[in-house]
Amino acid sequence: MTEQPSNTHRKIIHIDMDAFYASVEQRDFPEYRGKPLVVGGLPEGRGGVVATASYEARKFGVRSAMSSKKALQLCPHALFVRPRFNVYREVSQHIREIFSRYTDLIEPLSLDEAYLDVTHDKQDIGSAIEIAKLIKQAIKDELQLTASAGVSINKFVAKIASDINKPDGLKFIGPSSIENFMEQLPVEKFFGVGKVTAQKMKQMGLHTGADLKRLEESELTRHFGKVGKFYYQIVRGIDNREVQPHRETKSLGAEDTFAYDLTTLEEMEAELDKIATTVHNRLLKYELKGRTITLKVKYHDFKQITRNQSFQTPVNDLETISNTAKQLMATTGVDDVKVRLLGISLSNFGELQVKQRDDRELGPGDQLELEL
């Protein structure tokens, strides 16, 4: 990797709150502290999904986007509570105010996560590491919560770094360390690589960044499409994306690729209920409502179709999302078909003030599509 002169490097911090929803609940309700706590849909409800799990629950394998019933199977003594998004939003606003003491270049990815560009910080501190320490301490002192921080010269590496020493972690990956770091990184940690793509890569013998680095850009794009170009750059530590304080979310959704093909409408509708629940939770988390609901269907032969329906006013309620998706599914003709993947997304957000996050399940574009 050809390095630029050091004075041209950006100073990027990625802040990620630790088990945010669960930590807020444990802060506010002492009876939850030290216990496995799951925030999300209740397991006795239909299609409940985990929004966040406390670290005590994560020890049992409970993860975000997992069905609540699965979480209960893994951790039978877990406590389940519904999200209090109004409280989380208030806490998030306080966190944002702490960020703004140091920079106005803040790109929120969700209520609990953001990029900060502190190349030229307001207080002339000059050190991104020192600023990250001050932010973490302010969050701890003022909100009784912990955050993890990653510091580097670009967004991708800073985001990965913030996850290395969780919880309450701080990791700096400097310019001279990036190339070696990227070579050792497992492919499933790369932005744009979800479970399906990671499996494909491993079948090709690509397990780490070093393996990806052996392929030419043309080979990566042939196998993985346009995002292959991004893989080619990022494995060399090149990420020129700027911190964008006012990014516009184009769409938000979720999709699932099934272990076996779905062949009956009942199976499809059951899966659509689960996906709709995930979409609903995501919309609440990012404070979004959309006017257009889109259904995505991929068949066993990889043929793909979409169907959509638009509304006069924005929606984000679970019943509308689920029922609309099932109605659209019924129009596709489900007799004698084998469905490999289903997805639901909302778009046409209009003039709403929104928040956006990157998600490494997809490519580097602005679209928000989240795999289950």
Automatic annotation (TrEMBL):
Keywords: Cytoplasm, DNA damage, DNA repair, DNA replication, DNA-binding, DNA-directed DNA polymerase, Magnesium, Metal-binding, Mutator protein, Nucleotidyltransferase, Transferase. Binds 2 magnesium ions per subunit. It is found in: Cytoplasm. The record marks 21 as: Substrate discrimination. One of its GO terms (biological process) is SOS response. Gene3D superfamilies: 3.30.70.270, 3.40.1170.60, 5' to 3' exonuclease, C-terminal subdomain, DNA polymerase, Y-family, little finger domain. Signal peptide: none annotated. One of its GO terms (cellular component) is cytosol. Residues 12-194 form the UmuC domain. One of its GO terms (molecular function) is damaged DNA binding. Its EC number is 2.7.7.7. Its main location: cytoplasm. InterPro entries: DNA/RNA_pol_sf (IPR043502), DNA_pol_Y-fam_lit_finger_sf (IPR036775), DNA_pol_Y-fam_little_finger (IPR017961), DNA_polymerase-Y (IPR050116), DNApol_IV (IPR022880), IMS_HHH_1 (IPR053848), Rev_trsase/Diguanyl_cyclase (IPR043128), UmuC (IPR001126). It is an enzyme of class 2 (transferase). NCBIfam families: PRK02406.1, PRK14133.1. Poorly processive, error-prone DNA polymerase involved in untargeted mutagenesis. Copies undamaged DNA at stalled replication forks, which arise in vivo from mismatched or misaligned primer ends. These misaligned primers can be extended by PolIV. Exhibits no 3'-5' exonuclease (proofreading) activity. May be involved in translesional synthesis, in conjunction with the beta clamp from PolIII. Belongs to the DNA polymerase type-Y family. This is DNA polymerase IV. It comes from Mucilaginibacter rubeus. The lineage of its organism: Bacteria, Pseudomonadati, Bacteroidota, Sphingobacteriia, Sphingobacteriales.
